[in-house]
């Protein structure tokens, strides 16, 4: 008897080796003599994907056959990061495949680094969606992620002469082995035109929409594996294409170029990710993107629901649809349109279904980030939806009027239409009215949401509100990114922590074990060494791996206060200049992050970091005790490199401004200590790790409000704090800009005369906390204890915990085991 392992599923070394060679030949169409490293990467990726397909089919089959409830996560952004290592870890074959690749004479690390990461998001919100997809699969929750297949994701960042330069991201240029187009499941989406009222055969008043454009949505599916389970969920991203038939008329009358042009315009919808976050600009194409992917997704869900032989009355029992911020909130009007206009369901019942279907997660309190669209834009693009929104609004305000008679101010605030000046549709109000559940992303943020931004809604429906503190996946953010630490932890407490992060608590039992502390410290040291080598090789900057690695990586924003960090650097520099022999804890300041291309002040902060770096790094007096590096093109891949190497995590936003933060969690899980304000999830992190293991500084949210309302004057702080004054004056004098006193003037003036994010108010407290950091770092034994305790107490911040809460309290979704032999 002779047994062969299947080439596409087998897990013996020989089989994987053969599969790799087969995929190179039969899928990539190459032989070793002509194969490029990318060809080998592709062959490897297909080899891994093959091993997911059976599970993927099985998962999909079970969901369609059994009447299970599916979570549908609607997000304009999914910031996935590289797939290869993550899938290898989830399938439990990382070491095996690495060995096979190396035995085949290939360089595994080189192949791994060839993968272009799908940068289909800006930052926190997009990355959260990716972590949640990972946890949904790991927890065996039936789920589908819906989004947009941007041809160009977030731009690549280069730094030239200290300034950010944006380069288009061509992530698809060499092909994407992780996606499968499902051409046969294409969906049509309408745009523009007008509406027409009519009476149907039963003499009922109805409305039909006569669009002036139809666009096809083609789904591209990516498998999302779970850790150590058979579940492989789907991420379905839509690409816009022009329908062939639609333009024939133009063709016939000879307007060939016009027809081609309209085709190109349709396909523009999914061309590019808007690189702004936290700044709403009323761009028509963005609303087109939102409507496009939401309509495709809802039509897709309805098709799946009807395929099961169910009627639409039970739609909300088949799907729990979560709105990742307001970006997909047009879905509320679209589901109503589909139910009422296309499936002829009575308004009241359709509204019940809609409210029961949607949940809304808010990610920001910043007024400039709240989405609103002018009525004229809305009417041109989505005339029927505007009517539906008016109808929803009329009924809703009727309810409000009944509950609060004669309260026109309240009515104006709650209305879906902002009528205070130019008229707008308020998307947060639409999302709130159309959902049965509304949540913030950290305890403080939810409280502020209930009090301020959605205060009137909270008064009306307190029961709709809850908090769901963010979490991150320990698979990508510890196991994939920090194998050395993961191995050390596993040797001490076994592997269960990877899917039960609370188990990290068991590490506390080893806190008195000097050998364990030594290993912990050595691990961090080794990883810092790797990062130092990487920085040297890729950016030519020498950094001392023994120095304290102080890291701030995140999008550039004034509210995140990267420039406060710079003020600290200049303060230390000044101390050295005043007294070159001063005792100082050597530090390496590492920055990374992209600025929105149109955000002048954020770009100027990048220039400031680089300019200060140039001076500090090259001043012989500093004697390498301080180094400042801005690492270009911060992305998921680089995050994986830098979180594990950090000693200190900078989480220094103005209190009340950062909804949650998730980088703060990734750092602490990897044993970094946090210096931070009482903002977002910092508060909860500090609660978990203990106040003695956290460097706290700055005003509280209440104090920020108080100071603002009694009149904040940054000028007073500048004049009353000589240290601060020296630092600001040094920038103004042109010291960091080759004598140019104009370069940083906009930044300095903004601080001196407005300081909207209160850097000056928090400056001294920040410097004091940083001095405590220096002291603490000198006692390495103590620092190591704090580092271990930080990691050990991060169980709460697993995205598994967060997803479980969403499942139990919002989605009413339960796990479904996927058995391969059934
Ligand atoms: C309206 C449009 C311009 C827009 C696009 C992207 C607005 C906002 C965004 C992105 C927001 C975002 O990333 N928010 C972050 O969400 C994280 C996940 O909840 C939070 O941890 C983080 O504090 C918040 O800033």
From TrEMBL:
Sorted alphabetically, which keywords does the UniProt record give? Carbohydrate metabolism, Glycogen metabolism, Glycosyltransferase, Pyridoxal phosphate, Transferase
Task: Spell out the GO cellular component terms annotated for this protein, sorted alphabetically and separated by semicolons.
Answer: cytoplasm
- Keyword Glycosyltransferase set for record: yes
Catalysed conversion reaction: [(1->4)-alpha-D-glucosyl](n) + phosphate = [(1->4)-alpha-D-glucosyl](n-1) + alpha-D-glucose 1-phosphate
Establish whether keyword Transcription is in the entry: no
Pfam families for this protein: Phosphorylase
Annotated GO MF terms: glycogen phosphorylase activity; pyridoxal phosphate binding
Task: Read off the InterPro entries from this record.
Answer: Glycg_phsphrylas, Glyco_trans_35, Pyridoxal_P_attach_site
Please give a single GO biological process term from the UniProt record.
Answer: glycogen catabolic process
Q: Which cofactor does it need?
A: pyridoxal 5'-phosphate
Identify the EC number(s).
Answer: 2.4.1.1
Which superkingdom is the protein from? Bacteria
Major enzyme class: transferase
Q: Any idea which residues bear N6-(pyridoxal phosphate)lysine here?
A: 666
Q: What does this protein do?
A: Allosteric enzyme that catalyzes the rate-limiting step in glycogen catabolism, the phosphorolytic cleavage of glycogen to produce glucose-1-phosphate, and plays a central role in maintaining cellular and organismal glucose homeostasis. Phosphorylase is an important allosteric enzyme in carbohydrate metabolism. Enzymes from different sources differ in their regulatory mechanisms and in their natural substrates. However, all known phosphorylases share catalytic and structural properties.
Q: Give the family per the record.
A: Belongs to the glycogen phosphorylase family.
The name this protein goes by in its record: Alpha-1,4 glucan phosphorylase
Protein species of origin: Anabaenopsis circularis NIES-21
